[in-house]
Amino acid sequence: MASPWTADDDAFMRRALEVAEQGRGRVSPNPLVGCVLVKDGTIIAEGWHDHLGGLHAEQMAIHDAESNGHSPNGAVAYVTLEPCNHFGRTPPCTEALMWAGVNEVIVAHYDPNPTVRGKGIQVLRDAGIEVRQGLLEADAAVQMAPFLHWCGHRRPLVTVKMAFDANGSVDDRTKTPQRFTSDACLDKVHMLRKECDAVLVGVETVVRDDPKLTVRRVPTERQPLRVILDPKNRTPPTAQLLTDGLETLHMTENFTSLPALLNLLGDREIQRLMVEGGPVTVGSFLDQGLVDEFYFIQSSSVHAEPVASNIDASRLSAAGLTLVSTEQWGDETLHLWSR
Ligand code: AOF
Ligand code: ZN
User: Fold this and answer.
1) What average pLDDT does the segment 82-88 reach?
2) Closest to 20 in 3D by CA, of 64, 67, 66, 60
């Protein structure tokens, strides 16, 4: 069957997905959302959800049209997420679209938020606005994966990051703790941290590295919640994670299981958890099938006194992950595995 979408439809929704990127690392627990308004085949306005508490994408686009001297009346709105119809941090986008006189709304992904779930689309249709859904739905799903995952499971998406030397070692015992990857790679890691709501390590990493786990190498307006898995309460009281004044969840005796921890984080609206632990911590997430994405950073360096991780392609496959992409992160190669 022929696609119901034209090449123009496709290009406009791609643009909506592109502008949505401007909110990356700033909107959680809301999704990244983008919107473009089109009239006579040209984009007259663009909007995106820029930061938590800021305007929703549709409202920013309508505002953009008006401030550019364009009337949104009669326009087609391309939105990456079904417009909301509830009063939340902002008034409903459905009403804004109706008031603006938009003719048609094209939606990439429906909104699984229980307060929306199809009601946004229904309300627009009831008002006589044509609505079509499903254009570039898969791309939108990737872009808002943590939000969708959290709506579906009430738990965070689990993202592991781990760096390996040429032989699969994750640390060099001859040296004082230090990173063995390039500056450019570390910048990427900080960007990834910025997109995560929480960062978790095991107590071994705290004892050996005394990490901060903050976002420092890229600008940010917030810091992730830090989590230490420490069932025997061995974290030194002087550890930076406990003394730097930022929030750390120190899971000691009341810690039960990883699924219980994920539920607890989900209750706090943590939608994406980054696990930056060592082989033991990462191994338990893998073995329990709790990893959704694995950022496997391959360095060409060789450790003199290696620490074997026993984490390799076959272990990742066994944990239900597949290699989805490979790219260069500074001097290192990133292999991204995903569920
Ligand atoms: C839209 N456009 O740009 C976004 C939407 O509490 P609020 O007002 O921030 O609403 C958050 C919910 O609204 C969020 O959980 C999701 O369902 C939807 N996000 N909806 O129409 C947007 N960001
Ligand atoms: Zn909205």
Assistant:
1) 91
2) 60
Question: What's the gap in Å between 95 CA and the centre of ligand 2?
Answer: 9
Q: Whose CA is nearest to atom 18 of ligand 1?
A: 84
Rounded to the nearest angstrom, the distance between the alpha carbon of 140 and the centre of ligand 2 is 16
Contacts of 236 (CB under 8 A, 6+ apart): 206, 207, 210
Select 7-150's CATH number: 1.10.580.10, 3.40.140.10, 3.10.20.310, 3.40.50.300.
3.40.140.10
Position in ligand 1 atom list of the atom nearest CA 31: 23
Please give the model's pTM, rounded to 2 decimal places: 0.93
Q: How far is the CA of 32 from the centre of ligand 2 (A)?
A: 12
Residue 254 pLDDT:
66
What is the per-residue DSSP string for 43-96? EEEEEE--STTS--HHHHHHHHHHHTT---TTPEEEEEEPPP-S-SSS--HHHH
- Express each pLDDT in 166-217 by its tens digit: 999 998 888 777 778 999 999 999 999 999 999 999 999 999 999 999 999 9
Give ligand 1 pocket residues (Cβ under 6 A).
Answer: 30-31, 33, 49, 56-58, 81, 83-84, 88-90, 93, 111, 113, 116
Positions marked catalytic = 58
- Residue pair 324/336 in contact by the 8 Å Cβ criterion: yes
